[in-house]
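Posting for a labmate who doesn't have an account.
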Amino acid sequence: QVQLVESGGGLVQAGGSLRLSCTASRSSFSINIMGWYRQIQGNERDMVALLRHDNEVNYADSMEGRFTISGDTTKNTVYLQIENLKPEDTAVYYCYCNAAGPLTGWTSRDYWGQGTQVTVSS
């Protein structure tokens, strides 16, 4: 299985910035997509940004501008830079990965990190 380990969350004042990091633990898997979702309390988990193996990047319409995804799927890492944080960005941010490997018979599966809390104070 693929384990995703996130870091970089925390408490920040409005207007500040954060960089979230995620590393996938198992190198024998072939990663198709890595990215970030977030879940605001009481809401569903929403996509923030995705990085595909061909370096194509996709952002949710509401996330473009202040959110920047980067990384290297061949090195099992993805980052999310968030600028000009707002209180409404307060959420648990989850690292996401779609990957295939020998343990899954090379069938692609989705994997999730445990989540990292981002809290923005006004």
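Reply:
Got it, the structure tokens are right above this. The two ends are 40 Å apart (CA to CA).
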